[in-house]
Amino acid sequence: MSLSEFLLVNGVMSLSLFLHVIGVVVWVGGMFFAYMALRPIAATVLEPPQRLTLWAGVFGKFFPWVWVSVVLVLSSGLHMLSFLGGLGAPLYVLAMFVIGVVMMMIFFVVYFSPYRRLKQAVAEQNWKSGGAALGQIRQLIGINLSLGLITIVLAFLGRAL
User: I need a labelling partner for 45 at 20 to 30 A (CA). Which of 81, 83, 87, 115 fits?
Assistant: First the structure.
């Protein structure tokens, strides 16, 4: 490989890694803030109509960024995986890929099922139904947050394991 080819590959890999990290920071960081900071306060100071309306609005602003993050993480992850040998990549890299795909599937479930029900319940002022949908979203986001944090640990400690 010539020097110019090496520099091009290195530059493209660096760009892929940058886009990957940005996607992860937005997605996992947003879940962490929502789950660990916003949720406990909203649950204690807001009545169901205000709380459910707040969450429908928050998710309406956050979920488009999650879609962007999913595209960035998946495309950059596949690109980097191809340079690491595909299925021959180190086990921790393959584990990160599998966990990432599971996280994306969980997000799709959240977006297309309980989030839709939450928006509809808020529009209809059906607070009981909205509360049930929000409870399901909370559980799934809790799972995804845990998986995201595990993936970050693998990214930094995987080589040593």
Answer: 115
